[in-house]
Amino acid sequence: MSHAAADWTRGEPGLAYQECRACGQRWTFARRFCPACGATEVETRAASGRGTVHALTTVARAPSAALRPHAPYTILLVDAAEGYRLMAHGEGDLAIGDPVTAHFAPFGEGLIPVFRKDVP
Amino acid sequence: MSWITGVGLTPFGRLEGRSTLDLMSEAATEALASAGLERRAIDGVICGYSTTLPHLMLSTVFCEHFGLAPAYAHAVQLGGATGFAMVMLAHLLVGAGAAERILVVAGENRLTGQSRDSAVQTLAQVGHPVYEVPLGPTIPAYYGLVASRYVHEHGAPPEDLAELAVLMRANAARHPGAHLREPVTAAEVLASKPIATPLRLLDCCPVSDGGAAVVVARDPGRGGVRITGAAQAHTHQHVSAAPSLTRFGAGDSSARALAQAGRTLGEIGYAGIYDSFTITLAILLEEIGLAPRGGAGRLAREGHFAPGGPMPLNTHGGLLSYGHCGVGGAMAHLAEAWRQMRGEAGDRQGRVPAVALLHGDGGVLSSHVSLVLEQAA
Ligand SMILES: [Zn+2]
């Protein structure tokens, strides 16, 4: 499993996903094999950061005292242009179906992806 | 074939000074009395988990405390689906001849046994530790995501979902053991404070203390209710990995449970459906086929799910108002269905149903368990 792509879950400003060389399946949660076919020829790739809002919610009550100053914040499920889905934050006025692009911002103890609506 | 021969259900709410083991014991004592059994008649014990009493071997901790020495015992963990999963397992074990009479028991002082922050944090771990939890989601946020998609696809107005909260509160008002008994209106639900859009405070179940237990046996005892169908479906764990936010495993699970029982939806006379949030209840009712897509709230407003209506639903008030103490939460749905089927639901009694359908979910609509209960032929 290569770590060529920048990955926010390791503190780097980038979105990574995995693709199976055998069947073409793409997914978010890193692992050493393909969850669709079991092949171990798995490639970790850098995503473009572009996608579409699939679902969204604005959290008024944060789960911990450390995150409370950040509330309210918006959590999204984004369908990435590369064909996988991820959870991220959203910024500004967003609706389901909006085209969005990621940047990276500090939140809690790390760096997280935050999506903004694309300006047409 | 198995029978539910006794049930025990404590009041839910703020029960100061009661521990997990106290609440499990109270429910177990009532279930044994209800079944007319002495402790020594129990040869199997299945329990759930408790966030206030995490233990590697909760079943034997309970057995030692309560005074049981069964031939079979262990715990089950499946989030909100645990209660019905335990009953399904007891049904299968009894059918396989592994035990004669199994005590299925749950209890937790989830409200008074820990701080609110600690409860919220524990439950938020339902999220993926690397890809979700660092983003600060909460359980209501996972369901808020699902609700946003539901509203988008079905165009159901928020006042429709609110009707489900109104109904559960009206039902709870008739149950002396319910956590929240003050009636609410749809306007009050819509005016309650936002938690995770579009969900507001009154769209969410409370955190309660409480316990519940049932006896599942090979013989009918003093007039038990039969379990004639039981099935599960598991499609994902984390909401990010859900194959769909509008189709889950409930349709598959309930259809297989009904087929096993040789029953159709049209024969169901009572429904006990998991209702951690109004959106959970709407999605489950619709996916099972007890309401058209996007129409659960509208049917509730029209009285379809009222105790005297065509499909009485969670007549004890559900998780939304009877309360939610963890594993025991869904078992309260089962205790109420059992009482309705025996005509013992008092002020809440509707027409005695011949067939009832129960459905629970765990995670973020990730794990599904359906049970079909029937009167003795
Ligand atoms: Zn593959």
UniProtKB/TrEMBL annotation, chain A:
It holds the Pfam family OB_ChsH2_C. Residues 45-104 form the ChsH2 C-terminal OB-fold domain. It comes from the Bacteria. InterPro entries: ChsH2_C (IPR002878), FdhE-like_sf (IPR024064), NA-bd_OB-fold (IPR012340), Thioester_dehydratase-like (IPR052513). Gene3D superfamilies: FdhE-like domain (3.90.1670.10). This is ChsH2 C-terminal OB-fold domain-containing protein.
From TrEMBL, chain B:
It holds the Pfam family Thiolase_N. It comes from the Bacteria. Residues 4-218 form the Thiolase N-terminal domain. Residues 231-374 form the Thiolase C-terminal domain. This is Thiolase. It comes from Methylobacterium isbiliense.
